Backbone:
């Protein structure tokens, strides 16, 4: 099988894993953040609370002010997540280890999406969950992929966040409603970002399963790793929203994908490191030796 076809098949599987995981964690109660309640808690003393609820905090505060507040939210959310991850990291019975590991991974990503919502609402985004059902709309799936993609450092995900934002997405719901996600012009980028998330889901599954093989130590490692990873994840997303508000994105998805395509072609054409280049060489005398 050609290498390109193999890579495409792998990307498809990772992308499908991401969609399944998002669909599964969407049913967990911990994933949802009530936008109105969240903003009321964060800006309780603001005289512009009504304006914030209607138009978003970015209509009142600068991106710098919101970024500072995002840091507080990220730390608070990470602390709560780490405590939950520590508790989930306790099982040491081999018979339940794999099952508990899977549940912990679902919880991990549920908390990640929970934190992503808080950051998104802070920077003026609309409700992610628009219905009382557990099913996510195509628009919601796209936004989650964009958020998680940024959090896991997927190339092009930050620009994708801008594309699905409130300001750029007034007609997004209508465009997606008339066609499936796979028919949108940005689907190649969405799929690439989704595959990156799927790769992290696989790594996280292995990591969480291993930490459960030792009792207390497993809980410490699980909670510690969650704390270490969640802080930079939240910071990446907050920074992406700041770039969006300030309009400081450097590359469009098309440019990013062209760069990646060029790098892939360059790597394929590179000579093997152990290749021997044959030829005759002549040592030229120094100027002093010529005299």
Residues:
């Amino acid at each position: 099988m050609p290498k390109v076809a193999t890579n495409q098949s792998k990307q498809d599987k990772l992308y499908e894993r991401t969609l399944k995981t998002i669909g599964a964690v969407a049913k967990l109660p911990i994933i949802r953040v009530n936008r109105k309640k969240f903003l009321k808690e964060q800006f309780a003393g603001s005289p512009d609370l009504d304006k914030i609820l209607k138009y978003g905090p970015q209509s009142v505060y600068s991106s710098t002010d919101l970024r500072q507040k995002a840091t507080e939210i990220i730390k608070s959310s990470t602390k709560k997540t780490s405590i939950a991850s520590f508790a989930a990291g306790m099982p040491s019975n081999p018979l339940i280890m794999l099952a508990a590991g899977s549940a912990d991974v679902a919880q991990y990503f549920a908390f990640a999406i929970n934190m992503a919502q808080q950051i998104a609402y802070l920077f003026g985004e609309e409700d992610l969950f628009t219905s009382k059902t557990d099913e996510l709309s195509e628009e919601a799936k796209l936004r989650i992929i964009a958020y998680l993609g940024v959090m896991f450092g997927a190339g092009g995900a930050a620009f994708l966040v801008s594309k699905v934002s409130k300001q750029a997405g007034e007609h997004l719901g209508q465009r997606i409603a008339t066609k499936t996600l796979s028919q949108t012009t940005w689907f190649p980028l969405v799929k690439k970002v989704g595959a990156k998330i799927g790769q992290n889901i696989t790594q996280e599954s292995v990591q969480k399963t291993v930490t459960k093989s030792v009792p207390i130590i497993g809980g410490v490692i699980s909670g510690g790793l969650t704390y270490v990873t969640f802080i930079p994840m939240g910071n990446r997303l907050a920074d992406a929203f700041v770039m969006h508000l300030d309009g400081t994105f450097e590359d469009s998805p098309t440019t990013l994908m062209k760069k990646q395509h060029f790098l892939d072609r360059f790597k394929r054409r590179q000579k093997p490191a152990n290749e021997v280049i044959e030829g005759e060489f002549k040592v030229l005398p120094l100027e002093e030796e010529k005299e």
In short: Confidence is low (pLDDT under 50) at residues 86-101, 206-224, 273-277. Residues 138 and 181 are 6 Å apart (CA to CA). The first helix runs from residue 3 to 25. DSSP finds twelve helices and no strands in the chain.
